[in-house]
Task: inverse folding
């Protein structure tokens, strides 16, 4: 019988995929099969609601090389929906499998549901300007980005785990892999953020924002210019259209104008506060609370007030 | 009848806009402060074929038409009108050589001008009543070796940077302008003395200076066109130049109205963006309208030039229009921006000073309305 | 001497698209066309490859009738010849249709050593075309490439992923998806713009591609498109002293349970 499939090479994301998968299971009354490359992930996924977990094994560890094997699993069993974690690797795999399945695919769905036997997925268009619903006939492939959903609670039953030897793509050779992630913080996981822009005159002045971050227990983030042009903060802290997307409880934007290329990365924050000395800045339209003032005067006052 | 630019013309305009955004936007403010000749930008212009735009392909130019040319000038002027001035003055010199030069003269100068190795200058004006008349008039006396030039030329743009000047001198002081003749004078000819650079109101970075000619000897082969043809040549060249300058005015005006409009949408007073206030709407509307109509007139004149049809009346009309309304575009947009329109850290004050330099009359007696009236009455 | 093909999309400039405040629908009547930003990087990369290794670049685009407006633009940026498919189906085409049409066109045109695409189109940014094409053409796919070089029939590429960069090699033929950081597209010089008119272009008709009707029906259909609107409280603190404004902000944060 047809089923719901999930796959991600990222453990946390794979678990998160089970949440929309479980909702689809309700609508479609079909079992969930999780595909994974890791035995550790398999155990977790089996305990979180996957009815079956298949571990694909190969000497080769290159994720994209498993595309054909994943397609084989999905097509043999018959998939109605394939949810794949929207990492870059995941998108590569998903697109390949979608082509092989002759299926429609929605990239970076924010929400999904079944309606009239088809999948309805919500996604963003035109660099964030618009939002749309895509109706995808089944079988449908969907990629979902990290932290779009929370992982489900432990399930009452445990799914079956089996292993399967996978034939991987041997045409591509991986010569070397260099890690680029800083040992630092993942700002996308932060609950509160203080974002700095070019209203700060010197790198040392960021200390004012750090102090505020300290009393708020907020991480520091920034606009593209601060990271890529000034190199005052590492690129992992850059929020914007080609940087990180965040959804914290609190986003304090200090000395940044609020252009759409930045805001598209933080506009789903629960509360946005703006501190800027130019009342014409677009940030004030995007803020719940706005304070027009010189950050050099306001930040120390705010930090002191919050300390009390 | 098609009002749209051809695909090529649009792509050329887009290239010019992208070029200006990349190479001119970053230097515009500094250039306005220092007035130092922007050599790097001029070299980049050459590499993108902007300095040989009108020059025939077999002489190394891009051989594009005049409509493409004004598209380029307008787009460059949106970001830095001073650099557009450099291009304009260079191109008019090349235009003169192309239209009146012998095959040898064209071969000698145009390939170098297309590549930007030789910059052109156009020396017509004098401090006296009209070129060829008065104590300092530039006089060219025929001798066995060729001609000897003595006198002074005023307000020569690209002075000091040009490699070759198209120079107008009278071969007979008694006849004055009637004996005006065009010559090609190389900058390093002995006796060519470029005076001190003038501090102009705007368009800083395009050098302007007087040039004194002290017993400058030039060969017979340096005559451009026919002897005594100088007045006709300069009239035509200046008419073409006026259309090219109009493109600068339109480019500056367009940049100004876009800046003022963006400002007005954001500036909030009395609880609303000032763009909703009637006074502001009127100012923006008038500038946008004048700019739009000027552009249409400009493109029409440019097309006539490109097609080799009579264009002098249309050129005079666009000149007349912009002499009256060109600077108003900046007066009005500065008004929209209020205090910011008067602050030098914003772009409008520089544009205000620049636009004034693009709609100066060539000579008080030569007002465009004379030609227009003569054409209808 | 590689034979390269670049697939590009002629899109509406998303900066010109406005959201109508009455109903949040999109107004693209004033939007001008452009070659999708990341595809420009792909065209530039192909042009650079050919400048270095010899060979030639062709361009291929599938779009509505407006795709004809893109040809001179594309040809001024390096390619020698442009193939184009203008069909109404492009209006609603999803990634599955696009890939089918492009793959069929490629099978018709001939063999290429490298097929380059941008990472995604600037309007929809599906990020699917390159791997889909590779699957349909049974070629390997290198996605998210920010550095590319060719030595004989071996391609070496650096792929940039979220947490690492990997250097991979593969033998041609190969489909490659490039990132915008791979290069800076040239500003075409006037001679390049004018030269584009002299370069050949060839229309390929969809009817000649041997596709079934269902192949050009989108499987992902856009049902509703609405401008994104933020609903924020927009409370601006206007007290005369900075200290008073700060006090109000603190009170607001406290009421939200954030401090």
Result:
């Amino acid at each position: 019988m047809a089923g719901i499939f999930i796959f991600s090479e990222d453990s946390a994301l794979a678990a998160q995929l089970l949440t929309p998968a479980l909702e689809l299971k309700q609508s479609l009354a079909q079992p969930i099969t999780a595909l994974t490359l890791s035995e550790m992930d398999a155990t977790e996924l089996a305990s979180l609601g996957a009815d079956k977990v298949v571990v694909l094994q190969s000497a080769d560890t290159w994720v994209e090389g498993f595309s054909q094997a994943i397609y084989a699993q999905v097509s043999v069993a018959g998939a109605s929906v394939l949810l794949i974690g929207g990492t870059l690797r995941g998108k590569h795999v998903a697109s390949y499998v979608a082509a092989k399945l002759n299926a429609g695919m929605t990239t970076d769905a924010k929400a999904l549901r079944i309606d009239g036997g088809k999948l309805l997925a919500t996604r963003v268009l035109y660099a964030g300007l618009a939002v749309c619903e895509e109706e995808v006939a089944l079988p449908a492939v969907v990629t979902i980005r990290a932290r779009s959903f929370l992982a489900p609670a432990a399930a009452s039953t445990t799914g079956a785990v089996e292993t399967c030897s996978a034939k991987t793509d041997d045409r591509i050779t991986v010569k070397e892999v260099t890690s680029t992630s800083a040992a630092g913080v993942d700002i996308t996981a932060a609950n509160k953020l203080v974002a700095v822009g070019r209203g700060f005159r010197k790198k040392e002045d960021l200390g004012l924002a750090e102090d505020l971050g300290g009393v708020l227990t907020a991480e520091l983030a920034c606009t593209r210019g601060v990271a890529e042009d000034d190199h005052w903060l590492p690129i992992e802290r850059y929020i914007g259209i080609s940087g990180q997307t965040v959804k914290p409880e609190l986003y304090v934007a200090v000395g940044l104008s609020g252009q759409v290329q930045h805001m598209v990365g933080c506009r789903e924050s629960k509360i946005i506060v703006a501190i800027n000395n130019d009342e014409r800045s677009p940030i004030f339209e995007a803020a719940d609370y706005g304070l027009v003032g010189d950050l050099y005067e306001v930040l120390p006052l705010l930090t002191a007030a919050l300390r009390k | 009848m098609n009002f749209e630019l051809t695909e090529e013309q649009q792509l050329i305009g887009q290239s010019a806009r992208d070029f200006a955004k990349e190479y001119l936007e970053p230097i515009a403010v500094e250039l306005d402060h220092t007035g130092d000749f922007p050599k790097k930008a001029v070299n980049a212009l050459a590499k993108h074929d902007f300095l040989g735009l009108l020059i025939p392909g077999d002489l190394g130019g891009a051989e594009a038409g005049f409509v493409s040319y004004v598209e380029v000038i307008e787009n460059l002027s949106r970001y830095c009108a001073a650099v557009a001035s450099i291009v304009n003055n260079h191109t008019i010199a090349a235009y003169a050589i192309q239209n009146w030069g012998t095959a040898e003269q064209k071969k000698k100068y145009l390939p170098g001008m297309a590549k930007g190795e030789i910059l052109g200058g156009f020396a017509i004006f004098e401090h006296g009543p009209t070129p060829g008349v008065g104590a300092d008039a530039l006089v060219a006396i025929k001798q066995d070796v060729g001609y000897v030039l003595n006198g002074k030329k005023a307000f020569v743009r690209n002075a000091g940077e040009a490699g070759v000047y198209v120079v107008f001198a009278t071969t007979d002081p008694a006849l004055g302008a009637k004996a005006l003749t065009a010559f090609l004078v190389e900058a390093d000819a002995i006796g060519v003395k470029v005076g001190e650079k003038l501090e102009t109101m705007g368009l800083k970075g395009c050098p302007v200076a007087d040039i004194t000619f002290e017993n400058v000897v030039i060969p017979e082969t340096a005559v451009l066109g026919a002897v005594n043809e100088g007045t006709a040549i300069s009239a035509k060249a200046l008419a073409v130049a006026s259309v090219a300058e109009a493109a600068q005015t339109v480019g500056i005006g367009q940049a100004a109205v876009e800046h003022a409009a963006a400002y007005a949408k954001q500036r909030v007073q009395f609880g609303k963006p000032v763009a909703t206030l009637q006074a502001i709407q009127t100012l923006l509307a008038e500038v946008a309208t004048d700019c739009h109509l000027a552009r249409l007139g400009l493109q029409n004149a440019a097309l006539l030039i490109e097609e080799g049809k009579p264009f002098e009346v249309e050129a005079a009309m666009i000149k007349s229009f912009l002499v009256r309304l060109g600077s108003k575009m900046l007066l009005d947009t500065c008004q929209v921006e209020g205090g910011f329109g008067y602050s030098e850290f914003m772009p409008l004050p520089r544009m205000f000073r620049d636009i004034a330099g693009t709609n100066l009359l060539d000579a008080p007696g030569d007002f465009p309305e004379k030609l227009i009236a003569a054409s209808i009455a | 001497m590689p034979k390269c093909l670049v697939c590009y999309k002629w899109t509406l400039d998303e900066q010109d698209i406005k959201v109508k405040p009455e109903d949040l629908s999109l107004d693209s009547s004033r939007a001008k066309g452009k070659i999708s930003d990341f595809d420009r990087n792909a065209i530039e990369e192909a042009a650079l490859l050919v400048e270095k290794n010899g060979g030639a670049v062709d361009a291929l685009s599938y779009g509505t009738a407006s795709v004809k407006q893109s040809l001179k633009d594309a040809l001024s940026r390096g390619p020698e010849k442009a193939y184009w498919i203008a069909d109404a189906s492009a209006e609603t085409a999803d990634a599955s249709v696009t890939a089918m049409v492009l793959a069929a066109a490629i099978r018709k045109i001939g063999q290429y050593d490298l097929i380059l695409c941008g990472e995604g189109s600037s309007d929809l940014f599906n990020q699917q075309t390159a791997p889909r094409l590779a699957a349909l053409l049974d070629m390997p796919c290198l996605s998210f490439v920010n550095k590319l070089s060719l030595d004989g029939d071996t391609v070496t590429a650096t792929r940039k992923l979220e947490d690492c960069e990997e250097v991979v090699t593969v033998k041609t033929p190969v489909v490659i998806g490039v990132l915008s950081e791979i290069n800076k597209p040239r500003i075409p010089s006037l001679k390049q713009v004018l030269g584009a008119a002299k370069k050949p272009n060839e229309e390929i008709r969809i009817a000649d591609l041997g596709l079934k009707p269902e192949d050009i029906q989108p499987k992902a259909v856009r049902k509703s498109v609405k401008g994104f609107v933020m609903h924020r409280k927009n409370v601006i603190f206007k007290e005369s002293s900075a200290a008073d404004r700060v006090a109000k902000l603190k009170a607001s944060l406290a009421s939200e349970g954030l401090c």
